[in-house]
Amino acid sequence: MFTKILIANRGEIACRVAATCRRLGIRTVAVYSDADANARHVAFCDEAVHIGGAAARDSYLRADHIIEMAKETGAQAIHPGYGFLSENEDFARACAEAGLVFIGPPASAIHAMGSKSAAKQLMEKAAVPLVPGYHGEDQDATLLRREADRIGYPVLLKASAGGGGKGMRVVEAGDGFDAALASVKREASASFGDDKVLVEKYLTRPRHIEIQVFADSHGNCVYLFERDCSVQRRHQKVLEEAPAPGMTEERRRAMGEAAVAAARAVGYVGAGTVEFIANQDGSFYFMEMNTRLQVEHPVTEMITGQDLVEWQLRVAAGEALPLAQEQLAIHGHSLEARIYAENPDKQFLPSTGTLRFLRTPPAVQFMRGGDANAPAAVRIDAGVREGDTISPYYDPMIAKLIVWGRDRDQALARMAQALAGYHVVGLSTNVAFLQRLVKSEAFRTADLDTGLIERNQTVLFPPQKTAGIEAIALAMAALLERETRTRRIDEADRHSPWTHAGGWRLNGRDVRTLHFQGGGHKLEAVLKGNASDTSKNTLIYADQAAPFAYTFNADDIRVDLGTRRTHGQVHVEGDTFHVFHDGRHTVLEWLDPLAHASESEGEGGKLTAPMPGKVIAVMVEAGSKVTRGTPLLVMEAMKMEHTIAAPADGVVSEVLYGVGEQVSEGAQLLAFALAEAAA
């Protein structure tokens, strides 16, 4: 076995490989770009070396430099992870020439499966089922059109050297063929440097099922069952599960044996994934083979009890496969959700930014966990932490959320619960979308095909809901708690009763009206206080009135609304309240009238007090020239200090109140002339 390896990848991929190496006592070397100097995978490994600029082509794709770093650090092998150089035959060959073990298949196998058209010709010889299509070398446009007419529409045009959903077009009828062909060729040439195209029959409601295969250098090859990856957007996977719902033992065996035949046809060694497209009637056809471990491999680990990275390392070290086919079995059901920094409501547009707040459900990391009887219920494979930045340079994945259950129903329930506990602030994510997806009838009943998302647009992309009273109550509690914590202390008399005064009123109740902005709506909530018994406070919102009380337990807020009790978390950024409750993330902006008073009053030539209070500081005098944002006067209201600032450049005409004076709501504080008017 190796004593040190270099991991030629980043993020959760590098962390995943390093986790197994740590368990096996193998030292690891991380590589990092300028953008990843403080990344989690750098800290996760035993050593780290800098390999270049932020862009992948300047760092993670610099094969020669990575090999040089491996030799300098004394690594015996290079694990390419999945992505970047993992399916680069030149890199695999260069590793061997440098005396380093490439932890992956031989270069010849990568080459054989690298071209979709060539691979399908090989599969045809190996009797692996193929979708009717044309996979030849002749790329004459007239010939391709004739082949499409022969196959019958709709057909799928696909870049021969493609991947990741790029270079693919569905042609519904012959009159659209020429334009689609030109488009695919342009995209294929730009993305892969190869404009070869293959033509296949397009299946209208196909499922995407892949088989995990493993082979060693001793002639052994097994399949570790299947994964259903049908739920996709832009031809990229969103949810994966194992085993595939509705799979019969006969079909599983047939697909597994076909996958093994495919691997044997190219002299495969190591971990590989054979992808099939499956009809609703149970028929299946070879699509492609990914000559690497896949992003979704954790679901296979959860149902088989095997560490597939450990298998990779042992096979690469020359050992035989740990288990034979008859020793492998399926136990339970596993789901994986890919949590991305993206906006599903904007065509899944990637989002960049800082993870300012990150809370996750209790989970094991990178490992199956659990015990001999069952794995852990929840697993998280993540390459980022709170405070990290999702940059534009790499894949916007935040984490893989994996759950296991005794059956699919339990796994679904655990996934819904885990997603509800995954809280992110700082950028857009697909968490809410995933929640709707997991709970949708189509997914819950396993009515699966690659068009599931498109077929269920209404359910998966509903109109935004107005915040409920529970979310408002939680935000209200967080606001009141913040005000209590930040209340001004009189240093001259820290025990002053005025410092600790509540909402007591001599001749009535403390009534406070708060305005929030949320979901495109302005929301009003009224809190009627009761100084003698805070449990009798009343919250009024959206024609609802309920007794209101709250308590804090660490960062969890419990709110009582009469006989109803709810709880949640609130992350506050300035006047923005991120409320996490009942699986929902509600964003509410508090419209603080004092904080924004000057913004709305400047044009009228006067600044007024939006609430009753006391003037505690005056920073200007009549005739003072000020610029926008200059502090003019400080009021104390609601036991907090509020600064009234200049709304624009101008001149203070008159100061109408002095320090210590009480002012009523709406009272004019200063006369102010805009700079243009004063001139």
What do these coordinates show?
The protein has six domains: 4-103, Rossmann fold (3-Layer(aba) Sandwich), CATH 3.40.50.20; 104-131 and 208-233 and 245-331, 2-Layer Sandwich (D-amino Acid Aminotransferase, Chain A, domain 1), CATH 3.30.470; 133-201, ATP-grasp fold, A domain (Dna Ligase, domain 1, 2-Layer Sandwich), CATH 3.30.1490; 332-462, 2-Layer Sandwich (D-amino Acid Aminotransferase, Chain A, domain 1); 469-590, Glycoprotein, Type 4 Pilin (2-Layer Sandwich); 597-678, RNA polymerase II/Efflux pump adaptor protein, barrel-sandwich hybrid domain (OB fold (Dihydrolipoamide Acetyltransferase, E2P), Beta Barrel). It is elongated. Helix 12 runs antiparallel to helix 13 (431-439). It is built from 19 helices and 40 strands. The model is unreliable at 600-604 (pLDDT under 50). The longest helix has 17 residues, at 249-265. A hairpin with a 2-residue loop joins strand 28 (544-553) and strand 29 (556-561). The strands form nine sheets. Strands 14-13-10-11-12-15-23-21-20 form a nine-stranded mixed β-sheet, with helices on both faces. The chain has an eight-stranded antiparallel beta barrel with strand order 25-26-27-28-29-30-31-32. A five-stranded parallel β-sheet has the order 3-2-1-4-5, with helices on both faces. It has 679 residues and is an alpha+beta fold.
